[in-house]
Amino acid sequence: MTVMKRLSALLVAAILVSLFAPLCSSALDELTLDIKAAILMNSETGEVIYSKDSEKPYHIAETAVVMTALLAFEAAARGDVSLSDTVTASAEALEGIPEDAETQKIQPGEKMSLESLLYCALVCSAADACNVIAQYISGDLDTFIKLMNDRAAELGCKNTRFVNANGVENNEQFSSARDLALIASAAAGHDKFMEICNTVTIEVTETNLSAIRLLDNSNYLIRPDYPRYYYSYACGIKNGYSETGGHCLISAVNVDGIYVVSVTLGGQLAAADNGYYEIRSFTETRKLFKWFFLNYSYRDIISPIEPIVEVPIALAEGTDTVVARVQEGLSMFLPNDLKLSETFKREITIYSQQEGAEKLKAPISEGTVLGEMTVSFNGETYGPFTLVANTDVQVSKLELMRANLSSLMKNPLVSIIFWVVIIVIVLYIAFVIQYNRRRAKKRREFNKLNENSVTTIPRKKP
Prior knowledge:
By secondary structure, the protein is of the alpha+beta class. The chain has helices at 2-30, 65-78, 91-94, 114-124, 127-138, 141-154, 177-188, 191-197, 280-295, 340-343, 397-409, 412-456, and strands spanning 37-42, 48-52, 86-88, 111-113, 201-204, 213-216, 234-242, 246-255, 258-267, 269-271, 277-279, 296-302, 309-312, 321-326, 330-335, 345-350, 369-377, 380-389.
């Protein structure tokens, strides 16, 4: 029985390895997504974790609304507007919107808060709300569109062109997965943006010309009532569809307070095994996130509590070195099996060890800057990171005295005086010794003379 149990255990292990080994060993290079373009990006650093044709421009449908919302939130952050502002929709802002576009049937003269308009734009892609927002922020649509393109350039977008604020299909409007990830990463830095775009359903308060509006989000990745697409870790951000661009989706997951942003472009309807048709922008985004969590983790490359190098220090009490650490650490999303010590190369510079530099001396305080370090990986260099003392180092009084004396003796004048004094002292000692010897000799001669005198004088008889 024992042998059988062992064979059974080995068989189960072999099956598990055969199931998971191909995924773990090749997933990083061979993840297959049924989508035209995709990217996975660290929103804080811009680090690209996964990429598929991410630089190529595509039609992006209503995902363009993310830029419209970003500019509104940035204007609010500057104090130019407030989300509580009452905005009046103008006839000009509502002109030219195609009849088949998604709208909330906003009417000229209708008054809504800027926040309500952002809910309409982000939750259900309302083209009329986007135009009203654009006109309120910049005064007119043309100025706002220029602002969209200028901001895209500032963010480092290289393959993006906006011609409207609402994402209505236009052959002249396009972007790439990478560029949309940069835009979404900037927007994700605004908490209210993430709150709004992660809303599944909401009622927008009634206005002077409308009853309460019920907004329903069509981003099925965040909707538990769509289990075929729902992904519990997904956060927002925006989906869209056009005949030319197909299904597009910008999404994110929160990892230890950091948003990892995904973009999938050009998704199509595809037949599923159960007889249904699936929207590939949702299924492939979910697949991408699962792949990410299976293979990646947020790993410390260097940590502020890690001792980096021991730096020689003079005049210290009880030691001749001080430990240096980085002032701020570096963490990255990396494959779980990546060996950091073999792939990340460190280059350390200690200021006190540079040619012509003054040597490090005690006392020093914890946090004293000692040098800097850079880290290289895959052709990229990170840093420099400041190296500081890990602890206080007290001065040794004895070593300080020795050092002061040694320094003093290096002065030629002091050295001459010192040796003159030494010579004078030696001569004085020699003189005293010689003097004492002569005196002692005279005392002996005198005593001897007295003894002789006493012995030669005759005694008188009584």
